[in-house]
Amino acid sequence: MAAGKRLKREKERTAGRPLQCCMWRGVSATAGGALRSPSPVQTRPCVRLWISSIREQLTATTSRPKHLLVYINPYGGKRKGKHIYELKVAPLFAQAGIRTHVIVTEYANHARDHLKTQAELKKFDGVVCVGGDGMFSEIIHGLIWRTQTDNGRNLNSPEETLLPCSLRIGIIPAGSTDCICFATVGTNDPVTSALHIIVGDSQSMDVCSVHHNNTFLRYSVSLLGYGFYGDVLTDSERKRWMGPARYDLSGVKMFLTHHYYEGSVSYLPARDIIGTPRDPGRCRSGCSVCQHNGEKHSESAERYKMDIASESESDMEWRTIRGKFLAINAASMSCACPRSPKGLSPAAHLADGTTDLILVRKCSRFDFLRHLLRHTSKDDQFDLNFVEVHRVRRFCFTPRHCQSDSDLELDLRENGKRQIFSQICRDHPACGCTPAYSSWNCDGEILTHTAIDVRVHCQLIKLFARGIEEPTVFEDLTNPCAI
Ligand SMILES: Nc1ncnc2c1ncn2[C@@H]1O[C@H](COP(=O)(O)OP(=O)(O)OP(=O)(O)O)[C@@H](O)[C@H]1O
């Protein structure tokens, strides 16, 4: 029988079946954990054997989702979200027998508000967003809000222990940067992400809550940046018409402006953990650091509930640093992306209950350039005398113009007469030399307040992902064994 006829017959025979071989043929791991796109094939007996054995295995996997709530941002990135979903993802979901309820968003925060109020979450096994980091942020805000309010938690209290969300989140990358997808999957490929959803992978992730004066502001999963990164975002927002090139232009402009900001940072160092921000190891699929620190975290949360560790005891551990900073960054993940392959904190972990607090003190432009260049080089980016890094569970920042009188008095004693003029400026903001303040960049959004209280919530959400996979010895061409 001619090959064409045989294929046609086979197609007719298998039409409507939940899972077809074409989807699984050619799916294999590549370097960095990417999965190749499927290609259509004819079903020969050996292939049929494969299909039935894969189906058996998949049926046995109870973690596979069967019904998904999908939000598509039609305006994210190059405005191809709808097209990507319809062309590359929906056919795979259909072949895997996954039912979907698709909502194409009509305005910003549509997905967040729908999740908060209307979505019948009990009907679904997961939520999928088709878009970029902004869209992912909408989903986590909606889901976390809903989970906490349904369980009577007070979102405005930074002391509140939040409840982990039961629904997993899938990200189909269709934005302009897609950093979260890159950091959790290792690649920005819609088919790879769809397959992670279909097989029901699971990757826990920490979330930071950001409060100001006992009022909830936002959640963050990647970068909270004050100073340089806050200024770059604020400036680039004014140049939206330029597209992604605006980040480069604003970056150069802010580098040349070289603003530094005064304030105090207090932090609670992470105790009883393994790993430091300067480790050579990286957070990878099945990370033992995340596993160990996650367990330790739940043990100490239990102890705290039972009042074995008193609050005053933990208060004693707070440390404070006052000074002039070019940048204050908190990286809850490496923040690696195609532009900065190592990221801001290469050894940060996705789910260890901590964030890496990086303080870049006032220094020369040349030194700051050295620091920025280290994000792309092999050198240790924290090995500079004006940069310090701490792995923390919680931190607070107070800009100098918001510091209390007692704090200012302390500064006065420490730094002498110069502070008197700053005090005068603080009391008379119309004065031209008012101490300058920056804004916080919270996962790409500007925060409305500068004095903030940040707390890490260990493994609060779960993604349909498995973390970045190390290339196997045969895929890693830099490894001599591969040759
Ligand atoms: N229908 C819509 N109309 C306008 N804005 C929307 C709509 N749906 C979502 N948004 C908003 O668009 C913003 C950007 O979307 P998204 O993150 O998907 O793309 P992006 O900004 O290009 O990608 P990235 O965040 O990765 O750089 C989000 O903050 C989201 O709130």
TrEMBL record:
<dbReference type="InterPro" id="IPR045363">
    <property type="entry name" value="CERK_C"/>
</dbReference>
<dbReference type="Pfam" id="PF00781">
    <property type="entry name" value="DAGK_cat"/>
</dbReference>
<dbReference type="InterPro" id="IPR001206">
    <property type="entry name" value="Diacylglycerol_kinase_cat_dom"/>
</dbReference>
<dbReference type="GO" id="GO:0006672">
    <property type="term" value="P:ceramide metabolic process"/>
</dbReference>
<dbReference type="InterPro" id="IPR016064">
    <property type="entry name" value="NAD/diacylglycerol_kinase_sf"/>
</dbReference>
<dbReference type="InterPro" id="IPR050187">
    <property type="entry name" value="Lipid_Phosphate_FormReg"/>
</dbReference>
<dbReference type="InterPro" id="IPR017438">
    <property type="entry name" value="ATP-NAD_kinase_N"/>
</dbReference>
<feature type="domain" description="DAGKc">
    <location>
        <begin position="63"/>
        <end position="214"/>
    </location>
</feature>
<dbReference type="GO" id="GO:0001729">
    <property type="term" value="F:ceramide kinase activity"/>
</dbReference>
<dbReference type="Pfam" id="PF19280">
    <property type="entry name" value="CERK_C"/>
</dbReference>
<dbReference type="GO" id="GO:0016020">
    <property type="term" value="C:membrane"/>
</dbReference>
<protein>
    <recommendedName>
        <fullName>DAGKc domain-containing protein</fullName>
    </recommendedName>
</protein>
